[in-house]
Write a structure and sequence with these properties.
Layout (H helix, E strand, L loop, with lengths): L3 E3 L5 E3 L15 E12 L5 H10 L4 E4 L11 E5 L6 H14 L6 H24 L4 E3 L6 H7 L5 E6 L6 H14 L3 E3 L4 E7 L2 E9 L2 E13 L8 H7 L16 H8 L11 E4 L14 E3 L13 H4 L11 E7 L2 H4 L10 H4 L20 E4 L2 H8 L4 H17 L20 E7 L1 E5 L10 E3 L5 E7 L20 H18 L2
Parallel strand pairs: 3-4, 3-11, 4-8, 11-19
Antiparallel strand pairs: 1-2, 5-7, 6-7, 9-10, 10-11, 12-17, 13-14, 14-16, 15-16, 18-19
Helix pairs in contact: 1-5, 1-13, 2-3, 3-13, 11-12
Length: about 500
């Protein structure tokens, strides 16, 4: 993206590209050349399905990965069974997702997910089981609240790699081995460096292995699925300066694909990029949106508690907060919150998330659990690392007073969500919001072809997953559909893999 300045006549004048997008000199010292039909860059949740789908369709495929194994994060991937869903409701869901992203995405890309994802997830489940990956179909389970809220007749397939700490990364490692069995040539520790452009068409990739530079020719197409740019400080500061004080969840996501595509003539989405910032691991994920009292580490309330997890980061971006907050409730929460949206974990299930309990930890990530209970509010404050215990106790007292009147005079939470915190033991979940992903990428059309600065397709070049743009558009990733991001990654990879193999 070009930096711009305003001239004296109030017109915009292009000046220079950001330093991280400056085009390097062409690499010429090639030690070896390899020929393929399709070259896929990035062995992640879009890239592995893409390579496997392409080889199944008869293409000769190379898959390049800069790490020593396939890599991905997350667990659930959503797809829609069109044959068992009301077509009008599917279109309504697409419109809802457009609204979630401030109507900035390209509808055809959300449609591509909605109209193909059922086939893709069914295929993914079958291939993953064939590869001995730990995967199940959760079906409509995670979507029931959303379906009930909107009255949709939609049937979901929801792949789930787990239980935690097993995740989609583990699944992609298994699926990558399956791809190798089926004929994909996988090159680990071989990061792509530049795209080869000849007469306006991308014809290959130059990558670097331990011996030097290798040119991978692509007779039909190059597909880039290298993920996001969260680990490039300059890119992050430029496109999402508001997250400067949040920790990053991933490593090695340095925007390599974004840069290579720009050097080949492409364009990164306009500033206003979408971020994904969550914490589903400190306590039960099903309770993250529930409107329990929320306080910062200074012990003070700070928001309308009906605000969803995907927007919590907006309140916690300061150097002081760094994404930290706590949910507070008491021992009667199972009764008090029984009718709330979400999924309650009972006290026995809650123990898995409590470091002080000696229980089986299956289904959680041990290093991230951060839930506690205490007989007094003062003790709970200490365990949660709340810095001002007096302020915290006063906050709970004030909150209980508003509960008794049925009126939230601070943030206007509806009375049905106001529940007293008055019965020990008291519970608290110390959640820590971190940057999971930068969800914006390069400009693409409805077929995932990369576009140049004039909006024209670059022949031979495709982007998938979170390297591709135009699927999200709001300040934050929407949680409307559980597993949307992995679902759209798998779908884009599979669809493009089949498409380019047939060229």
């Amino acid at each position: 993206m070009l930096e711009e300045t305003i001239s004296k006549n109030n017109t915009y004048t292009e000046t220079k590209v950001p330093k991280f997008l400056e085009k390097p000199d062409p690499i010429t010292d090639i030690r070896e050349t390899k020929d393929y039909d399709v070259v896929v860059v990035g062995a992640g949740s879009p890239g592995v399905p893409c390579a496997l789908a392409a080889v199944e369709a008869g293409a000769k495929v190379a898959l390049l990965q800069k790490e020593k194994f396939a890599a991905a994060r997350g667990n659930a991937g959503a797809g829609i069974d069109l044959d068992a869903s009301d077509p009008a409701d599917v279109e309504s869901l697409i419109s809802l997702l457009m609204a979630d992203s401030a109507h900035r995405p390209k509808r055809e890309l959300i449609e591509l997910w909605a109209k193909n994802s059922g086939e893709v997830i069914q295929w993914l489940l079958e291939k993953s089981k064939e590869a001995d990956a730990k995967v199940v179909d959760m079906g409509n389970g995670p979507h029931e609240a959303m379906l009930k809220k909107h009255g949709y007749n939609i049937k979901f397939l929801t792949s789930y790699f787990g239980p935690k700490p097993y995740d989609a990364g583990s699944g992609m490692i298994a699926l990558c081995k399956q791809a190798q069995k089926e004929g994909v040539d996988v090159f680990f520790r071989t990061p792509a460096q530049q795209l080869v452009v000849e007469n306006g068409r991308v014809t290959g990739v130059i990558a670097k292995d331990s011996q030097g530079y290798v040119r991978f020719n692509a007779r039909k197409a190059v597909v880039v699925g290298t993920g996001d740019y969260q680990n490039d400080p300059d890119m992050l500061r430029y496109y999402m300066p508001d997250v400067a004080n949040l920790q990053c969840k991933k490593n090695g996501r340095t925007g390599d694909g974004h840069k290579m595509i720009v050097w080949a003539g492409g364009k990164i989405e306009n500033i206003g990029h979408t971020k994904m910032c969550h914490d589903f691991d400190s306590g039960p994920a099903g309770m993250c949106d529930m409107p329990f009292l929320r306080v910062k580490l200074n012990g003070r309330r700070f928001c309308d508690e009906t605000v969803g997890m995907e927007l919590m980061n907006c309140y916690l971006l300061s150097a002081e907060d760094q994404g930290h907050y706590c949910q507070i409730f008491d021992s009667t929460y199972m009764n008090k919150a029984a009718d709330w949206p979400g999924e309650l974990a009972d006290p026995e299930e809650m123990k898995k998330y409590m470091p002080e309990e000696k229980v089986d930890r299956t289904g959680v990530i041990r290093g991230l659990i951060n839930t506690f209970k205490a007989d007094t509010l003062e003790e709970l404050a200490t365990k949660l690392k709340i810095t001002d215990t007096e302020a915290f106790v006063a906050t709970v007292k004030r909150y209980n007073e508003m509960v008794s009147t049925g009126q939230d005079t601070e943030f206007g939470v509806p009375s049905k969500y106001l529940k007293a915190i008055d019965t020990p033991p008291y519970y608290g979940i110390h959640r820590h919001i971190r940057l999971t992903m930068a969800c914006s990428g390069v400009e693409v059309n409805g077929d995932l072809q990369c576009l140049d600065t004039e909006g024209k397709p670059i022949e031979g070049l495709y982007a998938i997953g979170n390297c591709a743009g135009n699927f999200y558009g709001s300040v934050d990733y929407p949680l409307t559909v559980f597993g949307l991001n992995l679902g759209h990654n798998y779908t884009e990879g599979y669809v493009v893999g089949k498409k380019v193999a047939a060229l």
